Amino acid sequence: MKKIRITALVAALGLLTALSAGAQSFRSGYFLDNYVYGYRINPAQIGPKSFLGLGTGSLDLQNNLNVGMASFLFPTENGMVTGFNKAVSAEKFLGGIPNGVRLSLDENINILSLGIAREESMHTFEINLRTTVGFALPHDLFAFLKVGGDKPYDISGLGISAGVIADVSYGFAHTIGDYLTLGGRLHFLAGIADVAAYTANSSITMGSSADINSEIHLQTSGIASLGIDENGNIDPSSLAMTGPYVGGYGGGLDIGIEYEPFYNFRVMASLTEFGVMFRKNTTDLVASTSISYKGTEITYNDDGSVKADFEQVLDELKKAIVFQEGTAGNRTDVLPFNAALGLKYKPWEFLTLGALGTWHFDSIAPWYEARAGVTVSGGYWVSLSANAGYGSFGPVCGGGLDVHLGPVNIIAGLDTFLGHIGLIKDVQLPYFGGIPVPLGGFNMNAHIGLGITF
Q1: What is the average per-residue pLDDT within 33-61?
Q2: Which of 63-72, 338-347, 416-425 has the highest mean pLDDT?
Q3: Is omega for the bond preceding 244 within 30 degrees of 0, making it cis?
Q4: What domains sit in the chain, N to C, each tagged with a CATH number?
Q5: Residue 170 region by backbone torsions, left for phi larger than 0, else alpha for psi between -120 and 50, else beta
Q6: Looking at per-residue confidence, does 148 or 103 come out higher?
Q7: What is the phi/psi pair of residue 65, to 5°?
């Protein structure tokens, strides 16, 4: 019985389950005093002053990966090898691979932000541009590449997605009585471009041949479209900007509550980014693939390298993956959303203690985390915060700085979990002794902002 390790198969079938990404607020900002964008975490929060951010309001770079280099590289007597090497057991290698390997990149650029604060109420208005990229690989794909065998491997859930969304929002918060504040935000969403590729009912079985069964979908909506050639293969030259310039519309809702049961102690709860997106002009290309390949040039090698005739494999896959003409129509996507619980206590004017729990609800990549933090403030002018906790990605930490230089407000901070950091020592760098890489997964949100308060 022949076994194959087809790294090229990953590239050929890299058009699979779309990983949706949701914009994440700067969670360390919750602990900062005088943070003007606190309403993004809890729309019931009323800021101390009005503010304006134009073009430089804020920039959020949210990047997540749930595995690190330690899941793929292993030290042996002969040096560093991949998990596919025969010196690494299947149990050890596959035990370090989660059910799904997920990478998500979510970048939010604030174009305009405006807040009008009163003593008992606050109005907010924002225009944001978001770009999202997601990538997912199922656990069974690694099991197939490592072990092979004549059992079926489910590779449904292998996919990639990308999109650009414009977000216009309006929020209002109001204090009721002396202790209770309610708030909400409405989001209008416009989909500029969107592409997603995924598999359904897909499997690989190895016996005397490689039996591949898969239903592959490639979807685009918005201003971009794709087509196929006369052989049913994707035609790169068909990529075109078709219009309309907005490929979909949607809406979202944030709601929040803040309660002060006694002086300088506040508790809050919020639900944010709960909404849907209606995508127009969606092109869906479908390929149903079923092949049994018995190539004699494909071999499985236990030295961690690939000794296969990849061109022959790709030719067979190209013949088998034949897309049908795309069907145009509309589709509806339910957006991921967040829930949060938090508390703050200010024993002295210069010191604030707090805790924040966040749950991200997503059908593909859900997560949670809990943080506790401390903030030291110098009146209204400067606030410095640090926090730490634990979540789905492991230990988390973060910090933030909020400075008011007259009317100029400068904000910078980081939500992060970098896991254990190691060095690739084959490539030397001055002062570091190598290239630092995350051995575990990482979750990082960098936040910077510049605005005017009044």
Answers
A1: 86
A2: 338-347
A3: yes
A4: 16-207+249-277+333-453 (2.40.160.40)
A5: beta
A6: 103
A7: -145, 125
